[in-house]
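FIELD: query
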Amino acid sequence: MQFNSAGDPEKRCYYRLLPDSETGNEETPPTEASPLVPRNEKRRKCGRKARFNKYALAAAILASTNSILLGYDIGVMSGAVLYIRDNLKITSTQVEILVGSLNLCSLVGSLAAGKTSDCIGRRYTVVLAATAFLIGALLMGFAPSFSFLMAGRLVAGIGVGYSLMIAPVYTAEISPSSTRGFLSSLPEVFITIGILLGYISNYALSSLPENINWRLMLGLAALPSIVVALGVMAMPESPPWLIMKGRFGEAKQVLMKTSNSEEEAEFRLSEMMKTVEPASSSKNWQGQEVWKELLLRPSRPLRRILIAAIGVNFFMQASGNDAVVYYSPEVFRDAGINSRKQLVAVTVIMGIAKASFVLVSAFYSDKFGRRPLLLLGSGGMAISSALLGFGTKYLGRSNGTPEWAIALCVVAVCADVSFFSIGLGPITWVYSSEIFPTRFRAQGSSLVISVNRLVSGIVAMTFLSISREITFGGMFFVLSGILVVGTIFFYFFLPETKGKSLEEIQLLFEDNID
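FIELD: result
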């Protein structure tokens, strides 16, 4: 099954059907069930340029700020672990457990987040995620021992799981279709900004005594948690969630604020109401039966959606990007860079490259579409991983440390994380949050992000062990092969969704789509 790209989303606009006296036809005035329809371009020319709704942008930024916490942890842990190993006298195996445990613990948060957000709402789930990470960051910052540090990682991991699920879902539900690609990419943008801040924190604090520097590195993550928990009170609730709770008036008020016109707001409201089953539109609805329908008796379109969403999340983490970021100092040390200050400085350069390209993807996903960026990103990562494998293999067999080979490894790592930031990084969150039907969105996203976290944890906790057996070069060749398979999967199983409403996207997976 191969999907083709859709048309230009920026041509979408809306109009009210006019009475017979004004149009001279037999159409009737708009009804509550269907107040608006897409305007025929032959009758009136549409504006082409999509506008950013400032209220929707502010709400998306507040929700996505939570993602800084995961990014900061990924970035800061890559440097902090160098000092934790010496200060707490832990083994390489304990290092892998420490690094990977946050991802596995986030699996718990991801699984619980869907049901939680259906019960208490998207907004308060964001608060819950920030609170959990705040507690975890404080526990890690004051940890007197390895076991205490692991307890902090467990609590922080649950918060990360909640955040990874709720930020993209909330953003997708609040966003107009014309700018949903950009706004739904913001969680990855903030993850990348967090990674860069983690690298900068490592570099700035590395000269402090090793019994203090890593504690400050980890403990500083509490600051954005407080900002998110306070700022979220200014966020509106998600309109689809309000509709599923039967709160139609509140949903319309939010849509009026997050749409570019009254007509667009009413169109979005009517589309959402069409896709919510009567049983779900009540104050007592809390996501009942959703898991059963997802796992035990999914319809054929829903099964296709699950395959696409699980697939993109699996390949996102099987690409090894998180492990490359976590263990980049180990990779560069193996490549011949031995100074800790130099190791941390190189990771800062890598973080700048990663942050730059995620912005490119965010700004252009609504223009070029999800598929082209995803295919470009995964294909580029496959080539970069192969070059990194070649460079590290050559250095492993060389008697010296030729500068060209070291430079190749540094460039290849920076290219790898940059291509990830163009494709798999942001596009995975966009797809995961927008392709599920309204009633299944929260718990469906919860399921696929749990797969994301599980694979991420497995890769992070086995990366060093496998690399010791087959060398870093061999590991990167394996990752390159996985990415080739992923690129083929994306080509055949992921449709283009740019410019379509959340309700229209469901039609892409119906039986009449080849």
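FIELD: remark
Confidence is low (pLDDT under 50) at residues 1-48.
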